[in-house]
């Protein structure tokens, strides 16, 4: 399971005004990013992406074991 304190969150604003959220685990190098929907709260989108990210980390641990 990902340690929430180590997961890095980056919010990137593109030149066209769109925003991307990127989650990165520095220990494994796993990174996941998604374009944000402007009509939806960033916190809600971040929480959903974190759930997907944690599942991907758990799967990587199982495959790598």
In short:
This protein has 65 residues and is of the alpha+beta class. The protein has one helix at residues 42-64, and strands at 8-13, 19-24, 31-35. It has one domain (8-64).
Topology:
Elements: E1 8-13, E2 19-24, E3 31-35, H1 42-64
User: Averaged pLDDT, please?
Assistant: 88
Helix content: 25-40%
What's the N-to-C terminus distance?
A: 14 Å
Identify low-pLDDT runs.
Answer: none
Q: What Rg is obtained from the alpha carbons, in whole angstroms?
A: 13 Å
Tell me the fraction of residues in β-strands, as a range: 25-35%
Main beta sheet: 3 strands, antiparallel
Q: H/E element string? A: EEEH
Q: Choose one word for the global shape.
A: elongated
Give the beta-strand count: 3
Q: How many structurally independent domains? A: 1
Describe the structure.
By secondary structure, the chain is an alpha+beta fold. It has one domain. A 3-stranded antiparallel sheet has the order 1-2-3, covered by helices on one side. The chain has 1 helix and 3 strands; from the N terminus they run βββα.
Index terms:
3 strands; alpha+beta; about 60 residues; three-stranded antiparallel β-sheet
